[in-house]
Amino acid sequence: MAVVRERLQPAERKPGIRCGERCSVSISGEPLLLRWAESFLFAGCSALLLLVARIFPHYWYFSLFALIPFLYKIIISTPGESLRLGFLLGLSLFGASLGHSLVAAPFTCLPTLIAGTALFSLFGWAAGWARKHWGFSPFVVSVLWVGLEMGLLRFGFVGGMLVESGTASQLLHSLVGLLGFIAASALIVLLNSFLILAVIKTLEMVSRRGKAVEENQSRRGAISAWSPFTEKVYLVPEDRAPPFCS
Question: What global pTM score does this model have?
Answer without folding.
Answer: 0.70
